[in-house]
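User: For my dataset I need records formatted as: sequence, then structure tokens, nothing else. Please produce one.
Assistant:
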Amino acid sequence: MRRILVLLLVFSPAVGAAVEASAEAGGHADPVAHEVAVLAIVLAAAVLGGDLATRFKQPAVLGELLAGVVLGNLDLLGIGLFEPIASDAFVDMLARLGVLFLLFEVGLESTVGEMRQVGGTALLVAVAGVAAPFALGWGVSAWLLPDAGLYVHLFLGATLCATSVGITARVLQDIGKSQTAEAKVILGAAVIDDVLGLVLLAVVTGIISAADRGGAVSLFDVGWTLLKAVLFLLGALLLGVKIAPRLFSFASRLRSRGVLLVTGLLVLFVMSWAANLIGLAPIVGAFAAGLILEDVHYRDFLDRGEHTLEELIHPIAGFLVPVFFVLMGMRTDLAAFGQSAVLGLAAALTVVGIAGKLACGLGVIDKLTIGVGMVPRGEVGLIFANIGLALTVGGQRIVSPPVFSAIVVVVMVTTMVTPPALKWSIGRAEARTP
């Protein structure tokens, strides 16, 4: 760990100086040279941060986020070389692609059949896991940010609805409990929770976008946005059943290299574009694309000994997704925590964020374990917050930099507390079982 910290302190200024030099180079310099230098810094920070988090038995995503926070706030120590990276258009585009691949991977890891197997119990947990944090988040925002306006309260409530299925799934795998009844309910509920959260995000962003255009937001507008989101997801499932097998059957006859990967990417990009076309966030389409693509659809490729689509996508996501987390960390302003109001907001949102998810375990087996498993916000919470940075009403951002920083704290704390808390809760339940 000490070696990693030394590398960050020694290596970062040297590379930063090289980046600054490349930016000031003459017209003979290839424009890509500056961007690849920037990308080298981001990826190096992601790798070192992920390793550091793993050494402390925490998810790598937490380390990537913290590495970004360090790089983005070195200007507080008089090192301002890395500050422009947070607004670099090239890095921002890679991060946006990383989000699409992240949601695509989450969709690939889930199937409609698995969602049906856990049935009503998981649905009950998921609905409660969305409703309770939404109401509590709205209440805290209205209490601590009374002058912020309705749309800020609405969006903060929606942000707290997210659940990171990846973090909980990793913990359950590490302790060998991924096949237990509780694990199936948690993971099934987390997937349904993601779907409900994305639908809610679509509704909230639709309302805010309509308000920014100067239009009055009516119940019809809300209902229409909700209907579009539901119809899109249902249409995606129908597409998966009817068209995807035929598409991959045709693709299997092509003799080009990498046909399976390219076909999967086509589905991902087309679905993301289609979601945006009808007014939904592209991540809704990315998740739906992953959900409809199951191994059975491309069995011809597997029979030839090729890798699964999930295995093929993983290296690309391994490159792009850390860029997103480091960039989100770099956009976190530590100076904002000098304001007591920001610290108070971060603390209050963290408390209600945890309490809202714990409440969703009521009425099901092993209430505490179910609730704890739903606590981490992880990457999904950051995705929601990042979308909020781009939303405006009357020229005012819905998520200001201080509020964004408070949300990052919620993500960090809920991500850190879940692994040890989940292990403890499962151990407690097993100790009580005769």
